Amino acid sequence: MLTLRETIDVACPAQAAFDYLANFTNIQAWDSSVLAARQVTAGAPHIGTRFRLTLQFGGRPVPMDYRITAMTPPQRLVLAGRGESFRAEDRITLAPLATGVRIYYEADIEFTRRWGRKIEPLLAPLLRRSGRRAIQNLKQQLSGEGRVPRLTLATRMADQAILPGIIGFTRLGYRFGKNRWPLTPNSLRGRTVVLTGGTSGIGRAAAFQLIALGAELILVARDRAKAEQVQRSLLAAREDANVSIEIADLSLMADIRALAKRIAASHPAINVLINNAGAIFNPREATAEGIEKTLATDLLGPFLLTRLLLPCLSAGQTARIVNVASGGMYTRGIDLENLDSAQGAYNGAEAYARAKRGLVILTELWAAALADSGISVHAMHPGWVDTPGLERSLTAFHQRLRPWLRTPEEGADTIVWLAASAEAGRTSGLFWRDRLPRATHVFPGTKSPSRERKELMARLERLA
Ligand SMILES: NC(=O)c1ccc[n+]([C@@H]2O[C@H](COP(=O)([O-])OP(=O)(O)OC[C@H]3O[C@@H](n4cnc5c(N)ncnc54)[C@H](OP(=O)(O)O)[C@@H]3O)[C@@H](O)[C@H]2O)c1
Questions:
Q1: 191-239 confidence digits (pLDDT tens)
Q2: Which atom of ligand 1 is nearest to 388's Cα?
Q3: Fold adopted by 2-143
Q4: Tell me, what DSSP letter sits at residue 406?
Q5: What global pTM score does this model have?
Q6: How far is CA 328 from the centre of its chain?
Q7: Closest CA to ligand 1's atom 18
């Protein structure tokens, strides 16, 4: 039997480190020999929770099952693993330090087949080296010392080239991205997250990921029955989840004002606002307040909600705003004289693209204005995702591309990463897809001079 022993000091609260480790699926972020990991048992990790890992061993994928056998939060965690030719026991002990936590990681690995026992002495140095590397990666993860991703020339060129750009939006883009990610989100325990559009598609998937990280969640929805159904599912997945519901139609400015007042009264400090609710409308419609619906839902609504929640976000300290935009915005610039798509023939996809372009511009303007406030602002594209919204609004596109669409969970990944990771918190004003900053302009004629960008903000202010 081989025993690996490593000790690391990490600048992270003991409870957050414990939560991160107890969700053993996180191992795929710090142990490069793990190709994939998923939780098999429902609910928050507890004694008996099972995980299925796929390891890279001897050049081929090898399945291995792990089970939590002992758990004393936030001090001790033991997992027993069993694969076809070896078993393992990981014993993790955490001791609080003045500035973080000391983690003692001990792993026994035992080959159960005769050939395995024979090669064990040969493999031992290799296993020790990869174990040491994995624990150093774990330290980096927990300390939030990971490299901050940058917009590189290669990414910009890939975004601008038609085929790689398109492939990147599909599930293949997510898969390619995933192989390259060294990072997973840290804990959101003690952080309050306001999420709009959590009753369907990408937002619903994000809600599950956010509570898995321990966030207190405020679900903003227009349909109470749907919101309560999601709340029940969240509580079934994690019985200690803290989820409240706020009802508002986010295309109505009066609703948004009332919503912001209620949130400020119940939660004077919030840490993350995720503007995810959005839709495409065909044909052109106006709200009861007389505002064209795409503009109202996809741009003016997020603008007003963000503005009204800024005091709560300031009080939240190191807060984040995540705006869910769309790659559709690549096709359009803003049109200040036609914000409400009243001129010319109306096209829902075009109006949507212009609204999402506006949201990306707001992200950049807010990032600059809030640079010294501790609030970072991010825009992102979830990729092309198989959701009820996409099926409803772009039915033919949805049908044709279905095999290539991402799952809602894959679409939500970068939203949650932007909300939670230490690395994302050290950037602001960027447009992301698959945890990488992306080009904001691909086609000519979509850029707006600074004067027009500021004017957009002023007009939204007047409209709202
Ligand atoms: N799916 C994609 O391929 C894709 C690609 C790029 C960007 N996006 C963006 O991703 C976000 C989520 O879209 P999705 O595909 O997940 O769509 P979805 O399945 O239709 O979900 C949209 C969510 O927004 C909510 N919502 C819409 N209008 C609202 C309003 N007026 N007031 C309150 N809530 C409202 C919906 O509530 P109900 O449940 O009550 O309808 C739902 O929860 C959107 O911003 C979308 O533009 C999606």
A1: 999 999 999 999 999 999 999 888 999 999 999 999 999 999 999 988 8
A2: 19
A3: Alpha-D-Glucose-1,6-Bisphosphate; Chain A, domain 4 (3.30.530)
A4: B
A5: 0.83
A6: 20
A7: 389
